[in-house]
Amino acid sequence: MKIAAPRLRTQLESASPTPEDIEDEARLLDLSLEDVDLSDLVAEHLELSGCRLTRAKLAGSDLDKLILVDAELSQCDVANARWSDAALTRVAINSSRLTGFAGPGMSIQHATIRDSVLDFGSFRFAKFVKVEFSDCRLQNADFVSADLTGAVFRGCDLTGAEFSQVKASGAVFVDCTWDAARGLTALTGATVAASSPIDTLTFTSAVTTAAGITLAHPDDLNGA
């Protein structure tokens, strides 16, 4: 799966907007946003295009129908943000905090999310097209009814994650942690690979439990 990288200009204009500076339908184009604090920003139809965000704070932001195109986010804080029906295209997110992030109905295309924390993230009804999560923590993440057909998860911690009613044909999971993950019977058509026999057993046990099957040793059934 070839993922297109963000297309950014070599020289970006430095800017330090505040939440008060940004209104509905604002467009932030070709900017370097370093150490900006946009916590709790509320806006509709905001467009961020060709921007590099470094150590930016977007925690608690509510950005309905956000358009994020050709953007890099590094060491950013997006915890407890809500980006309903957002459209993300050619986006790279690295070493960032997205705990409690909610993106219901969002569309993500050509994106990489690496070395980031997305515990309790919610992606209900989201659609992933050529998206790769690498070395991310997604404990208790919610993917209910998401379209994961174009998603790859590598080395991710999916402990307690919920996959009920997902579309997963073509999805790939490599060396992920599956403890207490739920809804795994919905991963029909996905490929799961694990170099550790323990991880393979954990996944198999989770699937059989979800299907209502009990695994037992023959000695436990003597006289049954």
Structural class, please? mainly beta
The biggest beta sheet, please?
A: 12 strands, parallel
Unreliable spans: none
> What is the domain total for the residues?
2
CATH class of the largest domain: Mainly Beta
* CATH architecture name of the largest domain: 3 Solenoid
Identify the overall geometry. Answer: elongated
| Alpha carbon gyration radius | 19 Å
Relative strand content: 25-35%
Helix fraction bin: under 10%
Number of strands: 14
Q: N-to-C SSE series? A: EEEEEEEEEEEEEEH
Number of helices: 1
How far apart are the termini?
50 Å
Average pLDDT reading: 93
Give the name of the CATH superfamily of the largest domain.
E3 ubiquitin-protein ligase SopA
Question: Would you write up a description of this structure?
Answer:
- The protein is mainly beta.
- It folds into two domains: 25-110, E3 ubiquitin-protein ligase SopA (Pectate Lyase C-like, 3 Solenoid); 118-213, 3 Solenoid (Pectate Lyase C-like), CATH 2.160.20.80.
- It is 6% helix and 28% strand.
- The protein contains one helix and 14 strands.
- It has one helix spanning 197-210; strands spanning 13-14, 27-29, 31-34, 42-44, 47-49, 52-54, 62-64, 67-74, 87-94, 107-114, 127-134, 151-154, 172-174, 191-193.
- The strands form two sheets. Strands 1, 2, 3, 5, 6, 8, 9, 10, 11, 12, 13 and 14 form a twelve-stranded parallel beta sheet that branches. Strands 4-7 form a two-stranded parallel ribbon.
- The radius of gyration is 19 Å and the shape is elongated.
- 38% of the residues are buried.
